[in-house]
Amino acid sequence: MAETITMPKLGFDMAEGTLVRWVRNEGENINKGDVLAEIETDKATVEVESSAGGVVRKLLVDAGAIVPIGAPIAIIGSADEKIDESKAVSTQPSTKAEIAPPTLPKAAPVVQSIVAPQTSPVKASPLAKKIARDAQVDLSHIQGTGPGGRIVRKDIEDILSAGPTTGPANVPAYQPTIQAAPTDETIGMTKLRQAIARRMAESKATIPHFYVSHEYKMDAVMILRKQLNEYLPDNEKLSVNDFIVKAVALALRDFPNLNASFAGDKVIRHGAINVGVAVSVENGLLTVVSRNTDQQPLRQISAEVKRMAVGARGGKVKPDDIEGSTFSISNLGMYDVENFVAIINPPEAAILAVGSAKEVPVAEGGEIKIGWRMKATVSVDHRVSDGAEAAQFMQSLAKYLEEPLRLLV
After folding, report:
1. Can you tell me the mean pLDDT for 277-294?
2. What mean pLDDT do residues 139-148 have?
3. Contacts of 264 (CB under 8 A, 6+ apart)
4. Residue 209 bears catalytic tag
5. Is the entire prediction scored with pTM above 0.85?
6. Residue 355 contacts by C-beta under 8 Å, 6 or more apart in sequence?
7. Which of 209, 214, 270, 382 is flagged as catalytic?
8. Residue 180: inside a domain, yes or no?
9. Quick check: 294 pLDDT over 90?
10. What is the per-residue pLDDT for 107?
11. Cα–Cα distance list, 250 to 11, 36, 297, 398 (Å)
12. How many domains does the chain have?
């Protein structure tokens, strides 16, 4: 029996998605679980798998269409099955989003010199700005062909295909001038940046945060990591963050209130421990999700987080890679950050902010010596938990980080 595929909800606050491209065309065979389409959300471009197997009988929306969640987008059925399209007709949205083209090679800076430099903020689509930035094209000298003179993708592609030019002989090529001071710049916010702004503002405005900090002895982790990495190839070497992710997951077993979500008049304690790891991407960050982290071996956690981080930075992830975390970690240790506090990622109840592991002077047994120390701060929803419980969680985390062999058994 034919099955209608609908625009999936890929985030608890997602209202619509842009169908970037169809991976399978009409008439092609598809198995359940195969990638059917790529959909752009506020966060990333996500590969959406088919929930049915058979033949792609009908694609109901065009590539580039912005589609509300739950709206039908395709029909999957058998090759000779009669399809009643009237039950699954999707009205084509009038708004179209630009489709991301293949990565373009960098070109020498090019301009249309027949257009005078603009003095007002450049009006260009986010995609056009990205392509222009990658190809080193100066947008201030391009006349857009979009609505209201807006620069769109095609304008940039036309410039790149034409190659460097100085324009007509009577018009000199553009020569940059040195200004005494840069002028103000108005930058449009990407969908990802808008989503981050919306969610973080909501989090700080509606969630009563409190914070508990702890300093951890990291000597044993640093020694064990060095020993283990001697047996691993370069692309599989363990990071300090891998140890932290596994330690957090094990500590959460004893503190279900921190592996939870606030839901009005009740608290939902999640059975699975899915640790989200914040990954820096262009113009923002994404949280990739390690599932059932407490049950996964350290090496597998490391491999999965690396794989998902590469996908996030490349702009393509699977829905399961970025949704469903029950507790998050934000680690800025690689930026030589001593300590910081993080904003809770709703609907979660807590997030751990991790600073750098550093060699510092420490006092032990009446003597000063050099030791590895790392500071971390947990932000907690006070509607769900209290200071004493958060402090006990941080102590439990110390047990795993200061005796890291516990992470291997």
Report:
1. 91
2. 75
3. none
4. no
5. no
6. 332, 333, 337, 338, 339, 340, 374, 375, 376
7. 382
8. no
9. yes
10. 41
11. 26, 36, 11, 11
12. 3
